[in-house]
Amino acid sequence: MGNQGGKEKDDKGDHLSREQLEDIHRLALNEISDMFKWFKKEAPTSVITKAEFKGVLQRMGVEDPFLQDLIFKVFDGTKTGCIRFPEFVLALSIITRGTPDEKLEFAFQMYDLDDKGHITREDMNKIMTSFLNLVGGDVVTFSGKKFESVEQLADAFFEQMDSMGDGKITIEEYKEGAIRNPDIVIGLGLSELRN
What's one Pfam family the UniProt record gives for this protein (predicted)? Predict the structure, then answer.
């Protein structure tokens, strides 16, 4: 509410100052400006609806509606059913320049299908099937491990991550397991964690 630290922000989070965007998102002003131009072109009303976002993803080759929903979910940080420019910039900045912790939290939010704070084996099977459908080909990890099926890959991933053995992967388990998994380190661009 009101003016926090001399920076204006409205109640919906529609407006952040340039300084806030640059500080929070580690992007140069010219990058933010380019993003804003693209955003205004795609969303002249200042919001991108779920249907519009899915259309953008489809033009980028992401045709699976389930995967489109997962990606929309993490871009719609305020859970309003549409994406405003600050949310858009935040998501892109995390993907491209986020810290390892931010990238892991971003991925976890996408994989936590029902927003209950954990990932189930069923969630992991759905997600990995969707990703495999996107890229096609054999079930092979970034590190070259081959699996007979998506279920086998999801099971191996789940076994490594579910350190409590309770059938759920929490954010803490995900972060701990992810930094030991070369495929996640490579997949999320966490090169600073590689030795």
Answer: EF-hand_7
- In the DSSP assignment, the letter for residue 61 is T
Q: Would you say the pTM of this structure is higher than 0.90?
A: no
Residue 8 lies in a domain: no
Alpha carbons 183 and 193: distance in angstroms, whole number: 12
34 membership: H or E segment, kind and range: helix 29-42
User: How many domains is the chain partitioned into structurally?
Assistant: 2
19-27: long-range contacts (C-beta < 8 A, 24 or more apart)? Answer: 21/86, 21/89, 24/90, 24/93, 25/89, 25/90, 25/93, 25/97, 26/93, 26/97, 27/89, 27/93, 27/97
Query: What distance in Å separates the CA atoms of residue 165 and residue 32, rounded to the nearest whole number?
Result: 43
Q: What is the CATH number of the domain that holds 127?
A: 1.10.238.10
153-186 pLDDT, tens digit per residue, is: 888 888 888 999 999 999 999 999 888 877 777 7
With the C-alpha atoms ordered 134, 60, 34, 76, is the resulting torsion angle positive or negative?
A: negative
User: Does the pLDDT at position 120 exceed 70?
Assistant: yes
